[in-house]
Amino acid sequence: MSLARLRGVCRHYRMGNNVVRALDGIDLDIDQGEYWAILGRSGSGKSTLLNLLGCLDRPTAGAYVLDGVDVSQLSDDALSHVRSRSIGFIFQSFNLIPQLTVQENIEVPLFYQGVSPVESRRRAHEIAARVGLGDRLHHRPTELSGGQQQRVAIARALVNDPAIVLADEATGNLDTTTEEEILAVMDQLHSMGKTIILVTHNASLTRHAEKVMVLADGKIESLHTREDLDAAGEDVL
Fold first, then answer.
1. Cα separations (Å) of 135 from 130, 131, 132, 182?
2. Stated pTM of the model
3. Sign, CA torsion 165/169/172/177
4. Which of 55, 119, 170, 196 minimizes the number of CB atoms within 10 Å of its CB?
5. pLDDT tens across the length of the chain (237 residues)
6. What does the alpha-carbon distance between residue 63 and residue 44 come to, in Å, rounded to a whole number?
């Protein structure tokens, strides 16, 4: 059974007398524990698709079923609940709160869920240790390297044990060495059974994924498995 299923999903915007077809008939099945990469140039529809998958937006047409629930029909409050319980976001710009410590940044999603301070602290310590930040819990973001800040963002995305993790150009602000460190963390999460969707414009990053979707002009241009790409070479992307 698919964890996430999209059928005929469209997202159209009206700009004056013109209709922009940001997404135009997307059919997709993502199973539990899979690692996907969504590849495409600027304007291909990557961000729009990510917003739909992350329940930040609704389709103009079509259905999006997440973990058995048709979220395309939910109210704003219900969508907010789904986001807080089922989805973890990792952003290119980290989006950490500079006034808070590492521990407090990780605990933010749990605060909005009403989790007790004691349980929040326990989870934050556990997740921080998992991503290699056990000795940085009381530092603030400005005291950390870019790679460490992204690890905080990953820990924050994982602390609510989401069904799906969405990484939006998650290594775009990092140097090559740090990028590899963060991708290694993502690989580790995948090996532990997490469902990961990595959105990128960089074809070389797709080597970490089991499945690769190429978007162009709001449509799926091609779909590839890891086996296909290993056999044919990633220059087909």
1. 11, 11, 8, 18
2. 0.89
3. positive
4. 119
5. 689 999 999 999 888 889 889 999 999 999 999 999 999 998 899 999 999 999 999 999 999 999 999 998 899 999 998 998 899 999 888 889 999 999 999 999 999 888 999 999 999 999 999 899 999 999 999 999 999 999 999 999 999 999 999 998 888 888 888 889 889 989 998 998 999 999 998 888 898 999 999 999 999 999 999 888 888 776 777
6. 20
**What does the alpha-carbon distance between residue 220 and residue 222 come to, in Å, rounded to a whole number?**
6
Question: Structure tokens of 18?
Answer: 């013109």
With 0-12 CB in 10 A as exposed, 13-18 as middle and 19+ as buried, what is 217?
A: middle
Q: Are 55 and 83 in contact (CB under 8 A)?
A: yes
| Alpha carbon distance 163, 196 (integer Å) | 9
Nearest to 219 by CA among 57, 28, 60, 19: 28
CA distance 82 to 158: 15
The single residue listed with the structure tokens 């329940």 is: 55
Side by side, the strands of the sheet bearing 211-216 are: 87-91, 164-168, 196-200, 35-39, 211-216, 219-225
Rounded-to-integer distance, Cα 208 and Cα 191, Å: 11
Question: Residue 18 class from Cβ within 10 Å (0-12 exposed, 13-18 middle, 19+ buried)?
Answer: exposed
Q: Which domains does the chain have, with CATH numbers?
A: 33-58+76-236 (3.40.50.300)
CA atoms lying within 13 Å on the CB side of residue 202 = 13
Q: Would you say 152 and 96 are in contact if contact means Cβ atoms under 8 Å apart?
A: yes
